Amino acid sequence: MRSEIPREGLRLFSNPKMPPERRRRVRQDRKTQVRPDRRAGARWGGPPRKAASSYQQKSLAWPRAAPAAISVEAEEENRLRLRNRLMLEEDKPAAERCLEELVFGDVEDDEDALLRRLRVPLVQVQEDSDDSEVEKEAKDNFLPQKKPVWLDEEDEDEEMVDMMNNRFRKDMMKNASENQLSKDELQKRLKEEFQHAMGGVPAWAEANKWKTPSDDESEEEEDDLLQRTGNFISTSTSLPKGILKMKNCQHANAERPTTARISSVQFHPCAQVVMVAGLDNAVSLFQVDGKTNPKIQSIYLEKFPIFKACFSANGEEVLATSTHSKILYVYDMLAGKLIPVHQVRGLKEKIVRSFEVSPDGSFLLINGVAGYLHLLSMKTKELIGSMKINGRIAASTFSSDSKKVYASSGDGEVYVWDVNSRKCLNRFVDEGSLYGLSIATSRNGQYVACGSNCGVVNIYNQDSCLQETNPKPIKAIMNLVTGVTSLTFNPTTEILAIASANMKEAVRLVHLPSFTVFSNFPVVKKKNISLIHTMDFSPRSGYFALGNEKGKALMYRLHHYSDF
C-alpha cells in the first residue's frame, strides 16, 4: 500500500508564506516520526491492520511488489524536489515570489502542470511555422485597430448633394427621383461619365501601367507559345461575310437637329465622342452611348458654311474649312479657343476647301487648284513644299505610315508621291476610269481603293501601285451606278464603305476578305438613308456613322465588334 502524508503537513510544506522557523520545526518533526510498517498494513495515526492469511500473502506478494517499489521511489523523488524548492524559496524576496505566482500560477503542488503549460507555446510556434509566407506577411502587417476616442453622430449620416440646382449635375440624373445623391454615388456617377467620354479607362489611370518582372515572364511564355505548333484557336474571330449584324441607333445629332446638309461626320480618335458639321455654320460634339447621344458642345462660325471638318491625329484640335473662304479655323479643344488661320505663308490659294491630316499628326495636305498639292506642317501651319500633277486634283490621301501621298486626278490617273523628298514614285491609270472622284487607303497598308465617275470601285494592292506601271485591281466593285464620292475603310480592314451622293440609298458595305457586299445593308424598303455625303467608323469599328443632305447623322451599332 502507498504511504499517505498527513494533509496538515502537506499544507504546511506547500505554503510559501509560512515563516522559516515554523517550516524548520515541521521538517524536524517529520524526521523523528516513526515510519509505519507496510507489511503489517499500518496507517498514519491509526491501529495496525489484521495480518492477512498465508494463502493471501503468497498469492498477492508477487503482483504488488513492483508497483509498491515504484510508488516509494516516486514519493521519495517528490519529497526531495519539494525540499529543494522550499530551500530555494527561503532566499527569495516576497516580491519575486509574488511575481512568479502571477506568471506561472499556483503550481507548487504539481510541477508537471507547469511543464505542460510551458510546452503549449512551443506547439503553437511549430504550427505557425507551417503557415505560408503570405499568411505570415498578413499577420505581420496586421495592426490592432484602436477604438475611437469619441464618435460624432453627424458623421454617420451621409451628406446628400443636390442634383437639381446645378446644370452639370442635372445632366447626370438618370430619372426624376434622383434629385439628391450621396457623395459616394456622385463620385461613381462622375467616374462613369469620364469613362464614357474617354472610351474606357485611360492608360495613365491604370493601376498596373508599369511593367513588373511577372510581365517579362508572361512575354517569355508567349514567345514559347509562338515557337510551338498546334491547334490553339478553336473558333475564328474574323468578320463573316453575307449578313452583317447591326442595329439602328439614335441619330448622333438628335439633341441638335438641323435641316442643313451634313458635310462631315467623324469619331474622335481617343474618346467616345462624335463630331458633326454641316452647312449650318456649326461644329457639334456629341457623346456616343447609342441611346440619347447627349450633346457636349457646339461651335458656331459666323458666315462660314463648313465644307469639311476633321480632328487632328491626337484629337486635341478640330480643323474646319468653308465652301467660299480661304480661312482655316483651328479649334483648340483643351484651351477652348478658336484660332483663325487667315494666310498660310507661301500659299497663294484663294479658297481652301479640301484637306487631309496625316495619320501620324505631322502634316496637313491641302488640295489646291491647277493640280497643286500643298504640304504644311501640322504644328506651325507653315508651307513645307508643293507637288504638282497633270490636270485637276479630284481627291488625295496619306498612306497608313504617313510616308506617301496618293492623289487621284481628273484624267483618271493615280499619282504616288514621297512625302520627305516630294518626288513622284509612280503613276498609273485607274482601270476603266474616265476621271476619279475619291481615293482611300487601308489602315494595315494593304489596299488602295479608287472610286470613279461610273460607279466602279477598283481595289488595288499597295505594293503593286508602287512597283507596276499598269497594276491590275484585285477586285472591281460594281454595285453602284453613279459616281463614287465617298470611300472609307474600317480600322480592322474588314469593311470598305462606298457611297454616292448622286443617288438615294446609294451606300454599300463590302466584306474585304471575300470582296462581297453585305446583303442586309441598306434596308431598301425603309429608305431613311437618302443622299450620303460623308461616312466614318469608330476607332474600334463598334459604330458606323453617315451624314446625309437632310441634316441627319445616322448611326449604327456593329455587333461583331465589342468595343467602341
Structural features, described:
With 564 residues, the chain is of the alpha+beta class. The protein contains eleven helices and 30 strands. It has a domain at 263-482: 7 Propeller (Methylamine Dehydrogenase, Chain H). Helices cover 25% and strands 27% of the residues. It has a four-stranded antiparallel sheet with strand order 3-30-29-28, with no helix packed on it. It has a four-stranded antiparallel sheet with strand order 4-5-6-7. It has a four-stranded antiparallel sheet with strand order 8-9-10-11, with no helix packed on it. Residues 1-14, 31-64, 122-128 and 228-236 have low confidence and may be disordered. WD repeats lie at residues 393-427. Residues 1-60 are annotated as: Disordered. Residues 1-10, 29-40 have a biased composition (Basic and acidic residues). Keywords: Nucleus, Phosphoprotein, Repeat, rRNA processing, WD repeat.
Short description:
It is built from eleven helices and 30 strands.
Please write the CATH class name of the domain at 263-482. Mainly Beta
CATH superfamily of the domain at 263-482: YVTN repeat-like/Quinoprotein amine dehydrogenase
Structural class: alpha+beta
How large is the share of residues in beta strands?
25-35%
Mean pLDDT: 79
CATH-derived architecture of the domain at 263-482: 7 Propeller
> Helix count, per DSSP?
11
Roughly how many Å apart are the termini? 96 Å
- Sheet with the most strands? 4 strands, antiparallel
- Biggest sheet, spatial arrangement of strands: 3-30-29-28
Number of DSSP strand runs: 30
What global shape is seen?
elongated
Radius of gyration: 47 Å
What would the CATH topology of the domain at 263-482 be?
Answer: Methylamine Dehydrogenase, Chain H
- Low-confidence region ranges: 1-14, 31-64, 122-128, 228-236
State the helical fraction: 25-40%
Region (Disordered): 1-60
Biased composition (Basic and acidic residues): 1-10, 29-40
Pfam families: WD40 (PF00400)
Keywords: Nucleus, Phosphoprotein, Repeat, rRNA processing, WD repeat
